[in-house]
Write the structure tokens for this entry.
Amino acid sequence: MERRVALGDPAFDPFALLDSSPQAVAREPRRGYYSRGYLPHIDIHAYQFITFRLNDSFPKALIQKLSAELSDLSESERRRETYRQTEAIVDSGHGNCWLRRPEVANIVEAQLLFHAEERYDLAAWTIMPNHVHLLARFREGYPLPKVVQSWKARSARRANVVLGRSGSFWYRDFFDRYIRDEEHFWNCLNYIDANPVKAGLCREPSQWQWGSARLQLDRNALPSATRRSTLA
């Protein structure tokens, strides 16, 4: 399949409504759909587009305002618009943007790569100033919520030491969407690569220091994983 380039393509929306029918979820079920009390998640054996962000990246006043503005929408529409608008607000650079500091971004990237090919297949990632996007598939015995929690807990402890601070580092929840087919996979991968360009942080995806695009990986076929050794 020819790779569709999503860079600069306004038609692609990673937050679009996907097939959530029981038939679609049942292909390789684990926990299926579940919630930790904040955002809905899905835990199945498939690649997933995942986003998590710093605790101060989305001001509480904006959360309340957004909730009021979207209150008349259906639940599915409200979720989609919440994800999309949250992404736009976070991309504008709210908060302390601790991930802009190289030593902190390096901590997060090292944590993402540490168990790649062992606990999950990591196809793409980018570390933005106040959030992280990645594309991963989790192996048996390593469910999505536990792996994400491990990434966040370990990187938060080390980042707080470097920053000389204490308290919450990451926002308590995360966003995820499962990849429904190969086209969706490449669109999400390209969206991840293009995020630093979209935010005005670089001109080309390969110029971003904390993303997989700089590794110039062979992406002519679905990757099984991204090797830690590629950064050596």
